[in-house]
């Protein structure tokens, strides 16, 4: 009996962390170099701070106003998270129904694609009229609608891209539609769902911030808008930094869940095993 | 009791008006190892799928264990092995083998016991926790066979299971399959396009002709059991191979001209 090379990664957690860090070194070096070039070029070329403040000034503004920025960030994060949760859940739900009733799916798909081409962000002021503008509902709605389409389309593609032989195998065991759905369609769809969810985290943050611009109270978007109006560009950039940090955190959180759930996925295995 | 009784089975596909099978009659008795062989387009895979109720015949009847093929499928009367191993990447080897047992409602401990037996049968002890993509093609096929046998079906339907494997792996798996067949005392219907594989494995070879798919003849293979590497060097083995080859030549398997002429007509 031939035994193929054992791809099971060996070694301790510490060794794994160390190799991970080594992998990250080039990215960290490039990032630091970029910041240094930024800082130096402002000093050398005497760039006005309304065009681009120094990174040092942004960081110090971020630090001195960290409390206010965090409160604003938390408000915007709640809008983004709420929209992400609602939009993604609705996307997955609709995709599931459309996968079950293919005729309906075929009828609705062109409409969905056309609707997806609509710049949804343009509806943001309208949502202020639809929902209570003093609450975070209109911002959540913008973020949610932005998340809905990519999640729905990708989930549907995942649910319907099962291999016919796997369905036949299930039939040979007298498995019904429900069994096939549970044991074949859902696992096949999961990688599609997760890549859509990662895109959705970014869209949710964009939706929340832009919707903030159209009227909200104490949020990150409004902090950016008001600071710019007051020529306080350091604060505006600090707020953008906060928005970026929160966006990255959402993305990383989904990636971590993906990593745990999709441990089995051969396309995700690092360093070309098997 | 006859395991598979096929009478007057015709299968036409509405798209392109293709007649895949025409008036097939075939009886398969318990303990037989029957190979279906023929050139591509002879409907050998379609016939196997008709037996397994994965596709319905346009006319005629198929009985498996005295029941309609449909009832036999719902009763889990057969295990199926496809050309590709059709393993689920998201399940470990053990869970892949346990899949039919889950669907038959075996509880956890009985499932584990059966899976361990099956891993031993196909000599994959210690690989239960691996994922399918961590195994070689031959090992994956052994997992697929173990999965098909896990619930001890009396009938095993195999659709060119070793077609994608290299010659050496294939010959080794042939011997392993015969070993399993003897120990499980099951009935096997095996689709292949390899003459030597069909002769080596089978107690009966059914030669099929293409367009429309018909049974051109059957050859009983009375080579001594158990068969081994030596069987392949037995003069009687060559004699049977020649006999099957002659039948295939008769149906135009190696003469594209006759097949093409029929298509033009």
Features:
heterodimer; A: 274 residues; mainly alpha; MetI-like fold; 2 domains; disordered N terminus; B: 265 residues; alpha/beta; Rossmann fold; 6-stranded mixed beta sheet; 4-stranded antiparallel beta sheet; globular; disordered C terminus
Explain briefly what this protein structure is.
The complex is a heterodimer of chains A (274) and B (265). Chain A has helices spanning 13-45, 55-64, 66-100, 102-117, 124-130, 137-160, 164-172, 177-213, 220-229, 233-261.
Report on the architecture of this protein.
The complex is a heterodimer of chains A (274) and B (265). Chain A is built from ten helices and no strands. Helix content of chain A is 77%, strand content 0%. By secondary structure, chain A is mainly alpha-helical. In chain A, helix 5 (124-130) packs across helix 6 (137-160), helix 8 packs antiparallel against helix 10 and helix 9 packs antiparallel against helix 10. Chain A has two domains: 10-47; 53-272, MetI-like (MetI-like fold, Orthogonal Bundle). Chain A has helices spanning 13-45, 55-64, 66-100, 102-117, 124-130, 137-160, 164-172, 177-213, 220-229, 233-261. The relative contact order of chain A is 0.13. Chain B has 265 residues and is an alpha/beta fold. Chain B has a domain at 4-77 and 187-264: P-loop containing nucleotide triphosphate hydrolases (Rossmann fold, 3-Layer(aba) Sandwich), CATH 3.40.50.300. Chain B has helices at residues 44-51, 69-74, 93-103, 108-121, 137-149, 167-184, 195-201, 235-250, 256-264, and strands at residues 4-13, 18-28, 33-37, 59-64, 67-68, 78-81, 155-159, 187-192, 204-209, 214-220. In chain B, the strands form two sheets. Chain B has a six-stranded mixed beta sheet with strand order 6-7-8-3-9-10, sandwiched between helices. A four-stranded antiparallel beta sheet of chain B has the order 2-1-4-5. In chain B, helix 3 (93-103) runs parallel beside helix 5 and helix 4 (108-121) packs across helix 5 (137-149). The chains are: A mainly alpha (274), B alpha/beta (265). Chains A and B meet through helix 7 and helix 8 of A and strand 6 and helix 3 of B.
